[in-house]
Write a structure and sequence with these properties.
87 residues; alpha+beta; SH3 type barrels
Length: 87
């Protein structure tokens, strides 16, 4: 019985998720990656230039998306972490 519990413990060990960004990181949107994505086809074609120039600060991370706050009086946005790069 102890062998079975040992096997369960080994198989249920948490896998470490490698995150691209952490809270507080400064980022900007990669123009090339964003415009070749599905999200760009569902969004406004005229995006403001400041998201590509940066910096924006990562506030929250949920799954593959990061909530980014820009240093301007605009709302925070959720962006796929594949579309942003470190500033």
């Amino acid at each position: 019985m102890s062998e079975q519990t040992a096997k369960l413990d080994d198989s249920q060990s948490p896998t470490k998720i490698k995150k691209k960004f952490r809270k507080g990181d400064l980022v900007k949107v990669d123009r090339e990656k964003y415009f070749h994505s599905l999200e760009s086809k569902a969004s406004d074609a005229n995006l403001p230039e400041y998201i590509f120039a940066g910096p924006g600060e990562v506030l929250l991370i949920k799954g593959d998306y990061c909530q980014v706050r820009w240093r301007r009086p605009v709302p925070d946005v959720w962006i796929n972490s594949d579309h942003i790069v470190s500033y």
